């Protein structure tokens, strides 16, 4: 088996074998931890401002989820006109790669990776792969250096944490949280535990009356109250019906009993089709190629409920176990559908007509590098963006970009409501018809905690606020502004909180970043059901 993301991590952490040893570490102007789309853009933006930049990526590949199966800018639920600056350039480069005169907002993972690599190489950003942050050395409120799991130390003047998990932020002792606040904490009507979906007719108990794995009892939850659980995770498989597809492999940890809900469903509904179980997106991909996602209202799907409960604060070894468990769940589900005799023949034949796309993730057995971590930690920074900042108080005196995605929380947990029914809990799907401004303070820690760190991905927001910000296109906008702000802080020799905002605003506008909701008239409404 070829190494996966977390398998590589275990080699790094648990043995003396060093996969990557940078030729020199030195002191960098800006150190970006995390080669997610937001991290790549942050690194390139800082380098274009003349900063000496190091980008550290824990896997072998740049691009995060945009190179691990998410092939959309989410423009179907955003206002495209808010894309600006370097992120817009990224989509324009994608368009050029597909022979278009203009941006494209739907793309294949391997194409996105090439564009990210080109941007980094052109900007002369140094990249270190397969290394995780181990510890942070601070002097007062400033990070001096970070120690990596490959045995090296990296010093920097300003640091940017662009990971989905916020590990650099956490090791720098910056305040953070995870899960959902109560409705009362920030006065958010969409906050807390949410029972809004219709119960699903499927028994959440086994034949002996024991609650099935991944379920919780209704009596443990109260509507509107806080919960430390986060949205469910899943892999975004790239699938194909073409002749060169790779058949779904049988995972070593295959356990068909994990899919008992599906067995019961298919017994009662033999007419079930694959589209009833997982979401298949064709976007503008080549014929026969599909992006997949967890289907929100399915009895069972790609989302592995209960499998990520301790992920946000877990150590690397535990995260590896969670990654592998989600992988086994995912491949096991597809293998079950294509092979198990309990599956109706028509559905087995339909599923077997698909396989893993042969032209994606070619060094990882065509399996995505990244698990779709929809949310993990969130910083509690100088300003916390909440529901009111999206729907009511949409302007900010220190705006660094616009955001416009709907408030979107996938389900958090599966709740048994009777012996024969369960409900998926936690969904938010709130339309937005106008953009809103994001405060610079939402990516800066409190000055008393850290003065040379910016956090554009695990941004300072409530769960509800985060549910609008948590898409790659917006994280790229935040990363672009973070990179420019970091370079400016180095030039001004100031704490990130003390950067002259007027100068930052001027730089952002020169780079084509749209900062104000009054930039132009936003017409029309957005609707959709995905």
TrEMBL record:
Residues 1-18 form the signal peptide. GO terms for molecular function: 4 iron, 4 sulfur cluster binding; metal ion binding; oxidoreductase activity. PANTHER family: COB--COM HETERODISULFIDE REDUCTASE IRON-SULFUR SUBUNIT A, FERREDOXIN:COB-COM HETERODISULFIDE REDUCTASE SUBUNIT A. Pfam families: FAD_oxidored. This is FAD-dependent oxidoreductase. It comes from the Bacteria. It comes from Spirosoma arboris. InterPro entries: FAD/NAD-bd_sf, HdrA-like. The keyword Hydrolase does not apply. Keywords: 4Fe-4S, Iron, Iron-sulfur, Metal-binding, Oxidoreductase, Signal. The keyword Coiled coil does not apply.
